[in-house]
From TrEMBL, chain A:
Protein name: NADH dehydrogenase
A single GO cellular-component term on record: plasma membrane
Main localization, broad class: membrane
Membrane-spanning ranges: 6-31, 69-93, 99-120, 141-161, 173-196, 228-248, 254-272, 284-305
Keyword tags: Membrane, NAD, Transmembrane, Transmembrane helix
Membrane-protein topology: Multi-pass membrane protein
Cross-referenced Pfam families: NADHdh
Organism: Streptomyces malaysiense
GO molecular function: NADH dehydrogenase activity
Location relative to the cell: Cell membrane; Membrane
Family: Belongs to the complex I subunit 1 family.
InterPro entries referenced in this protein's UniProt entry, alphabetically: NADH_UbQ_OxRdtase_su1/FPO (IPR001694)
From TrEMBL, chain B:
Catalytic activity, as annotated: a quinone + NADH + 5 H(+)(in) = a quinol + NAD(+) + 4 H(+)(out)
Principal place of residence: membrane
UniProt KW DNA-binding keyword: no
Signal peptide as annotated in the record: none
The protein's name in its UniProt record: NADH-quinone oxidoreductase subunit J
First-tier enzyme category under EC: translocase
Species the sequence originates in: Streptomyces malaysiense
Transmembrane segments: 6-26, 33-52, 58-77, 97-116, 136-161
GO cellular component, one term: plasma membrane
Homology family: Belongs to the complex I subunit 6 family.
Protein role: NDH-1 shuttles electrons from NADH, via FMN and iron-sulfur (Fe-S) centers, to quinones in the respiratory chain. Couples the redox reaction to proton translocation (for every two electrons transferred, four hydrogen ions are translocated across the cytoplasmic membrane), and thus conserves the redox energy in a proton gradient.
Amino acid sequence: MTEAGAWWTLLAAPAMLLALAGLAAAGHAVLAARDAGRPVGPAAMVRPFTGVPRALLAQPRRLPAPDVLLWRAGVITVPVAAVLSTLVIPFGGVTVADLSVGVVWFNAMEVLTWAGLWLAGWGPDAAFPLVGGYRFLAQGLAYELPLMFALISAATGAQSLRVGDIATSQQGLWYAVWMPVAFIVYLAGVLAFSFLGPFAYPAGRDLAGGVMSETSGADRLVLRAGRWLWLAAGAAMAVPLFLGGGAGPGMPAWAWQAVKTLLVLAALVLALRRLPMIRADRYVEFAWVVLIPLTIVQVLVPALVDLNR
Amino acid sequence: MTTTDLLLLGVLGALALTGGVLVFTLDSMARVTFSLLASLACAGGMVTVLGLPYLGVVIVLMMVMEMVIMAVFMIAYMMNPAGLMPMSMLHNKRGSLVISAVAFAALVVGIFGVSWPRRTGARPKDTTFQVGMSLMGRQMLTMVTLGFVLLATMVGATVLATHRGRYDRFGDGLDQRPANDPAGGGVGR
């Protein structure tokens, strides 16, 4: 059972999410160092963070006619939505806000990234970011519906939209085991809404960084942090949704949850380095012709199980 | 309702109205779209405060997606190229004033004219289940019909809008493989 946390959990949850995101970025940097033949060690680990002070102090790039209000709003929306999405995730039996519609809340916060990235692309009034923003929408139309059906699968299995109920209803058998399609589609969705790895299309190298290309200084830092925060939030949400939450033998719930979250995060970081980037026009057909029917059939499985209970 | 709820309701209502006014006073298509989104998100918040959290959060979810997609089409099809130049959101001022005044008057008369029912029984703890039952219980036929009508409308609109049919894709004898498409898809049909 989960309970609503005290006021300080409101500060602890973002701090934990930030730590997770930092770990993911550090892990990614270590793998990059290994692939590039550089020495793998603490220096490689802190490499992504050495630019942080410089980014905070840097003179922002000036553009002829930006819409600064919308640009800022978009850039800030991405990490803020990631932090807000974690409010409903139970950790060791405690949730910051134990909403009865937690899954829908997570989904709504994730969809806010659509608005955030489109605005971040529109704001600078420059071609490459604009194309990047539109690319994210094309990608969103592809990944969103399968992701929604994956979330619905877990909620249908538990007959509840409360994330804590979904975690506790997996006594004995994880949803990842008997809803593998939903689990994989969910993980693909996590990579897609953090626009990393195979779904880095909106910020692709072929577009000089796309939606990120004109951001500079603190804005750039915030937007880049938003990507890793979303990856961490998605990994943290995967545990109560599909991996039984904090359930496990021998260790307290929070320890199991931390171990599982770190494993999911590690798997995501490995996957995003291994997989090539996929264009949205190719993924959209795959998503609509293959993934949506598959996930609808996947939702049918827990629905039938529920009816026969 | 507690005092906090009433206060929240008031603040969200005021913000929603402000967003609505901004829709007609701002001069950039993107800003207009996102003030409409802010207004609708506040409406979602109001529904949540009124005790329907599922509908409230879903309103926010759907409105973000719809407004972002709407921004794409509004900017693409506006008379002003790409919506980049300052523009006025006001057209047909006299007609729209009449329509909005009549609609406002009808709603106000409705609010005061209808004899609202008194609450009987206790308020349910989780209203999501009740919303689901009232939509999918007795109204199942309505919802199924609505679903098919919506789907048929979308498919029909897409078919009418596209200038290519199966003969363009597969040739006159429908035997040309792979299909002749301007952009290749992901599954190689």
